């Protein structure tokens, strides 16, 4: 079972999904769980199958004291870069939390905010703390649904399976069919082939 950061205060867990994708939004989630809430099934979203993630998504939504999920579009990502877009998503998610927050814990090693909040960045926090793992589940399930819906209009890019990540099939589709309005134009969308010296 993952740790509870501090069961005497209101803790907000933050995580993101889709930061390394070639297409689609970057998504951040913030969640405040009840102080003494414990769920042994909650873990890093990447370690759960789709069915379990969806069940836990619904459980977290229902039991949380407050939560928020924010998407930042590829257009904004291209204009301010992915790191700033991730910070923007996280800050906007925090702004949507109306429940009292005593402390915020964020997955990763870097965060930037103008808010007067107490926070701590925790590398691989989604493997350590329950509230960060819960946020990772909210962000991933929400974003995966976006990419699955987009797939219906852009099936050639296989977003239903790769969720916008740069798989070989996705990159080959970009090479063959070009890019869509959902692609991040500032990213390296097509890997340069190695030149063979003869």
Major sheet, described briefly? 5 strands, mixed
Structural class: alpha/beta
Helix content: 25-40%
In the CATH hierarchy, what is the superfamily? Ribonuclease H-like superfamily/Ribonuclease H
Shape: globular
Which secondary structure elements does this structure contain, and how are they paired or packed?
Elements lengths: L10 E7 L8 E7 L17 H14 L2 E7 L1 H7 L1 H14 L7 E5 L11 E4 L7 H22 L7 H4 L5 H10 L21
Helix pairs in contact: 1-4, 2-3
Keywords:
Nucleotidyltransferase, domain 5; alpha/beta; 6 helices; single chain; five-stranded mixed β-sheet; 198 residues; disordered C terminus
Model description:
With 198 residues, this protein is of the alpha/beta class. The protein contains six helices and five strands, in the order ββαβααββααα. It has helices spanning 50-63, 74-80, 82-95, 130-151, 159-162, 168-177, and strands at residues 11-17, 26-32, 66-72, 103-107, 119-122. The protein has a five-stranded mixed sheet with strand order 3-2-1-4-5. Strand 1 and strand 2 (26-32) form a beta hairpin. Helix 1 packs across helix 4 (130-151) and helix 2 crosses helix 3 (82-95). The longest helix has 22 residues, at 130-151. The radius of gyration is 18 Å and the shape is globular. The N and C termini lie far apart (56 Å). The model is unreliable at 193-198 (pLDDT under 50).
């Amino acid at each position: 079972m993952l740790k509870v950061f501090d069961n005497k205060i209101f803790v907000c867990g933050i995580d993101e999904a889709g930061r390394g994708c070639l297409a689609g939004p970057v998504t951040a989630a913030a969640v405040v769980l009840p102080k003494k809430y414990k769920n042994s099934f909650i873990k890093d979203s990447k370690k759960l199958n789709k069915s379990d993630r969806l069940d836990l998504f619904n459980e977290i939504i229902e039991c949380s004291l407050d939560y928020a999920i924010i998407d930042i579009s590829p257009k904004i990502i291209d204009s301010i870069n992915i790191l700033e877009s991730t910070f923007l998503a996280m800050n906007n998610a925090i702004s949507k939390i109306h429940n009292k927050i005593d402390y915020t814990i964020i997955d990763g090693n870097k965060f930037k905010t103008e808010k007067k909040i107490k926070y701590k960045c925790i590398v691989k926090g989604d493997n350590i703390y329950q509230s960060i793992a819960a946020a990772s589940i909210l962000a991933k399930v929400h974003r995966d649904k976006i990419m699955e819906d987009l797939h219906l209009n852009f099936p050639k890019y296989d977003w239903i399976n790769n969720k916008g990540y740069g798989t070989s099939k996705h990159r080959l589709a970009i090479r063959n069919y070009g890019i869509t309005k959902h692609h991040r134009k500032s990213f390296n969308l097509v890997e340069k082939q190695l030149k063979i010296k003869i």
